[in-house]
Automatic annotation (TrEMBL):
It holds the Pfam family DUF6361. The lineage of its organism: Bacteria, Pseudomonadati, Pseudomonadota, Alphaproteobacteria, Hyphomicrobiales. InterPro entries: DUF6361. This is DUF6361 family protein. It comes from Rhodopseudomonas palustris (strain ATCC BAA-98 / CGA009).
Length: 394
């Protein structure tokens, strides 16, 4: 049946495609040197279901609650999509009425909001096992009427129970929707809501660092990087190893990003930009733990970060290996004709072809002076915010 076409596709592939589509729309994930697959593999191991544009944790409950209001409707797919948008806009107003301002998606845009909260959190809802329906929101709207008709009314056998589960949209343990949700609401979780989310993480992402931190309550760390966490020694072995790899990778490759910006600044002949990146590049070099970097095993790194949702291209691995080789040999210098500069320029040219900023002056002239200049943190900021919301439940 065409209304159930989503069932015919492999769920892992569908979720991978949804994550990729979401990443294309996140400004923070712009990837000038082709390191995004590596970055996201690490982030999805440590903090699965998060993304850089998530704001507050209770949206993981708001979205199911809003979509539950549409269940039983006889409206068509387009009308359901319109009604869902209206509900999400009403939610923004209810949050503002409840005194919330920080983290309200659509606070300023109102009805003109382009990126709805449901699209921001949809993949995460599936990853955490809150959403059981395997398709997109459009798939859901197209299938809604059939799902209502097809659910077994009586569960007399294991087969009928299995069929009922397959037709569920949300996990049956979802907490009850507040009656005043669309009048005034807040981001603060109740204790039952917080425990529900922790239970979902433990059940569906048991080996993740996010589940460990949520369960253990080690959520009050205000460190900027996960490898600076005060309870790092208590992390599970695999997570602690991966965090260590992430720390070195972030440190090593930050220099390539800084050099990229410095080289472009020189081509643009912008003195203030040049000075800024020369200073930052020198500070980066002086901060490196070269003993740790020389002891770092790339083979162990690639094995540790392997993730079914991300395919890391051989060219990306070569770029990392060549940059690391130059660094350990002491050949990462900031001159325009150095091997390091040629490596960075060649990498960007191969990735962007005719849109390369090094090869296309018109594209370069539109550059605003900063591209990926901050060290990689693997979505720790978003995970930290979610853990803070869990810890603040009452």
């Amino acid at each position: 049946m065409s209304s159930l076409a989503w069932i015919d596709f492999d769920e892992a592939e569908r979720q991978r495609a949804q994550r990729i589509m979401a990443l294309f729309q996140e400004r923070e994930t712009r990837d000038e040197l082709g390191l995004g697959g590596i970055r996201d593999s690490i982030a999805d191991h440590l903090f699965p279901g998060t993304s850089t544009i998530q704001t507050r944790l209770r949206y993981m409950l708001f979205i199911p609650w809003l979509f539950q209001m549409l269940e039983g409707s006889s409206a068509g797919a387009d009308q359901l999509a319109s009604e869902a948008r209206a509900l999400e806009n009403r939610l923004a107003n209810a949050l503002k009425a409840g005194g919330e301002s920080n983290g309200v998606i659509g606070r300023d845009a109102g009805a003109d909001l382009q990126r709805l909260p449901s699209s921001v959190y949809w993949a995460g809802l599936g990853t955490w096992g809150i959403r059981l329906f395997p398709g997109s929101t459009d798939n859901l709207f197209s299938s809604m009427r059939h799902l209502q008709r097809a659910r077994p009314r009586v569960r007399e056998s294991e087969d009928s129970a299995s069929e009922a589960q397959a037709l569920q949209i949300w996990t049956p343990t979802l907490p009850a929707r507040p009656t005043d949700l669309l009048d005034h609401t807040q981001f603060k979780l109740s204790l039952d809501e917080a425990q529900f989310i922790i239970d979902r993480l433990i059940a569906h992402q048991p080996h993740s660092l996010l589940a460990f931190l949520a369960r253990s309550g080690s959520s009050q760390a205000e460190c900027d990087n996960i490898w600076e966490h005060p309870h790092l020694a208590d992390f599970p072995d695999d997570a602690r190893t991966l965090v260590g790899h992430g720390a070195i990778f972030s440190s090593v490759m930050h220099g390539a990003s800084l050099l990229y910006n410095l080289l472009l600044s020189r081509l643009r002949d912008r003195a203030e930009w040049i000075e800024k990146y020369e200073v930052r590049f020198a500070e980066w070099q002086s901060s490196l733990d070269m003993a740790g970097i020389r002891a770092w095993s790339l083979d162990a790194f690639w094995a540790a970060i392997d993730h079914p949702a991300h395919s890391i291209r051989p060219a990306a691995k070569r770029f990392v290996a060549e940059w690391l080789g130059l660094l350990t040999a002491g050949n990462v210098l900031d001159g325009a004709l150095t091997p390091a500069a040629r490596l960075v320029q060649d990498r960007e040219r191969r990735l962007k072809t005719s849109q390369s900023r090094f090869a296309n002056r018109a594209v370069r002239d539109r550059w605003t002076g900063a591209s990926g200049v901050e060290p990689l943190t693997f979505r720790w900021a978003q995970a930290k915010s979610h853990l803070r919301d869990l810890a603040s439940a009452e």
